[in-house]
Amino acid sequence: MRILNLSLDREIIEKGSAVRQRLILLAEKVGEIVVFVPGERDEKEEVSTHLTVYSFAGPRVAQLWKMWKKGKEPLSGSSSFPKGGGEFSSRRILNPSSDSEVGVLPLGKGELRVFELITVQDPHFLGLFGVLLAKKYRVPLEVQVHGFEKSSGLRKRLARFVLERADTVRAVSNRLKEHLHSIFHIPYSILYTLPVYAQTAPPQKVIKRKTVPYPFTFLTVGRLVPVKNIDLQIRAFARLVKEVPHIRLRIVGEGPLADSLKSKVESLTLEKSIIFEGYRRDLRRYYEEADAFLLTSDCEGWGRVVLEAAAYRLPIIMTDVGLAREVIKNEESGFIIPVGDERELMLAMKELLDKPQLRERLGEGAFRAFKALPSREAYIEKQVEEWRSLI
């Protein structure tokens, strides 16, 4: 099989990243994968004999336009590519059984490949691009849904338009699968669930937990965007620290809300207790030094960072989103609280402070939930099976 993957995950560009390594293995199993992804510059990289990555720089509109030009290049006869990408020849190829045109994807100078499937990691603007390419090339389209940060207005209408034209839809959780069926009326016959693989190797040794009066550390990891609702954590922490001063909250991530969240912390005079760490690629140190993990999203497709924390035997406090109840079970591997409930969050945080044995039990439960997930090999086999059945 030869697959065109339209992605938003920039970790694919990062050498040595877990996402990139998994994709290399998946491409070996599939045969060949070509990835289009936003990046810092326009370039092509032959990652392996089975995986080629094109990155496109600029504002989002410019990136999509470059992707479209590159995607339709084989049928237009053009050989141009953004600076750094080189020159590529192209021609039309006919399907002998039907005389219909099929897509031709240039992977290298003078080298042509027919692709048989387009998979797109977004049901919105990138998804629309996938719909147009799939229709133009007359190949099946898979739409991957990892969650909905904004599911109203134009974005909802666009998602409906894209999803209705997909040949198959992958949801990353059963909760999301049911949402797609009930809200967008996607038939179960074209829906399947395949979670985001937890690309974390558990530490070789168990780190001894610190306890009060040493700084008990709550950790959160994620983009600083509205849907993650980091503000909820700050408000709950501000209430709790009045009762238990020897605690801290570490926030790892960056995003458009960084300045406003820091301003809020400053207004509460909690700069020494709530620490913004910025973006960090290697999270091991933060997981090892933490005592509990927080995820307070208003909406989540899956929640990969929760599983990373579980691999480090951290007790989890999370809102009822994503993999909550599907993987993390209330009072077995963590606490699941209602979305947006500041009081319940504060009480759950306080309970972990007061009961070290509870922390250990929930942490071990989270680790067992992590270990029970399918292996990387099983994940890859499932993905290949779904693609083969579609083609």
UniProtKB/TrEMBL annotation:
Naturally occurring in which organism (per UniProt): Candidatus Taylorbacteria bacterium RIFCSPHIGHO2_01_FULL_51_15
Q: Which residues form the Glycosyltransferase subfamily 4-like N-terminal domain?
A: 115-187
Which named protein is this? Uncharacterized protein
The cross-references to SUPFAM superfamilies, in alphabetical order and at most eight, read: UDP-Glycosyltransferase/glycogen phosphorylase (SSF53756)
The record's annotation in CDD domains points to:
GT4_PimA-like (cd03801)
The highest taxon in the source lineage is: Bacteria
* InterPro entries on file: Glyco_trans_1 (IPR001296), Glyco_trans_4-like_N (IPR028098)
Q: Which PANTHER family match?
A: GLYCOSYLTRANSFERASE
Transmembrane segment boundaries? none
From the broadest rank down, the organism's phylogenetic lineage runs: Bacteria, Candidatus Tayloriibacteriota
Q: Which GO terms describe its molecular function?
A: glycosyltransferase activity
Residue ranges occupied by any Glycosyl transferase family domain in the UniProt entry: 215-366
- Pfam assignment, any one: Glyco_transf_4
